[in-house]
Amino acid sequence: MGKLWQRNYHEHIIRDEQSYLKISEYIINNPANWDNDSLKKII
User: pTM of the prediction?
Assistant: First the structure.
């Protein structure tokens, strides 16, 4: 039926508050960077 895993995906264990803040900031701000992503595919 297709692929189950996302290519180049890796997990990250959040070990402290600083790591949590860095990761959450990335998640929040990532959609704003989509237009600058050289690897995006136009569907």
Answer: 0.52
